[in-house]
Amino acid sequence: MRFPERELLGNAHLLQVHGEPAEGAGLGVEPLAPLTVRSGRHARRDLLITNRTERTEVLITNGELSSAVTNSSGAVVGRFAGPHTLARVGFEIAPQETRPVPVLIGTASIVPELGYAVPPGQWTLVVVLQTETGSMLLAPLDLTVSE
After folding, report:
1. CB of 22 within 8 A of CB of 137?
2. What is the C-alpha to C-alpha distance for residues 35 and 27, in angstroms, rounded to an integer?
3. For residues 4 and 38, what is the distance between their CA atoms, to the nearest angstrom?
4. CA–CA gap between residue 93 and residue 55 (Å, rounded)
5. How many CB atoms lie within 10 A of CB 2?
6. How far apart are CA 71 and CA 110, in angstroms?
7. Which residues of 49-71 are buried (b: 16+ CB within 10 A; e: fewer)?
8. Mean pLDDT value across the chain
9. Separation in Å, CA 22 to CA 32, 61, 113
10. How far is CA 69 from the centre of its chain?
11. Closest alpha carbon to 137 in 108, 101, 111
């Protein structure tokens, strides 16, 4: 957002996450520990990704999965606001294998009414899994934003 006007910079794509449920595609996602991030900050955490299919899956990332903070109705309210590397890093997960994969969690607000940071409270973190085949899969997790 611009300061001090609180006008959102960006496009409508920032306000949405697109994809199918990861569980329906055979990928399970769970945190190693409860996810907590300070308001207005970002963090990298490891998630456990389980491939429940009979084929190897490769997750395409820039070194970490992307995510968005959403409210109870599913609208995106926060993201990481900063530069991203453009390196292509694949995380291969064999059939029936579980492995840790890092996720970038950002709590910069993209909703002017909330201010510049997602306020403390309980939110949902939607993790985006992009597969080598081009599928975009979504996995919702509980997120606590602290002061």
Report:
1. yes
2. 19
3. 22
4. 9
5. 9
6. 12
7. bbbeeeeebebebeebbbbbbbe
8. 91
9. 18, 16, 31
10. 7
11. 101
Which amino acid is located at 122 in the chain? Answer: Q
Return the SS3 of 14: helix
CA distances, 74 to each of 18, 78, 119, 133 (Å): 11, 12, 16, 26
Q: Tens of pLDDT along 29-56?
A: 999 999 999 999 999 999 999 999 999 9
Identity of the residue numbered 4? P
pLDDT tens by residue, 108-141? 998 888 988 999 999 999 999 999 999 999 999 9
Residue 14 main-chain phi, psi, to 5 deg: -65, -25
As a whole number of angstroms, the distance between CA 99 and CA 81 comes to 27
Separation of first and last alpha carbons in the chain: 20
d(CA 78, CA 42): 10
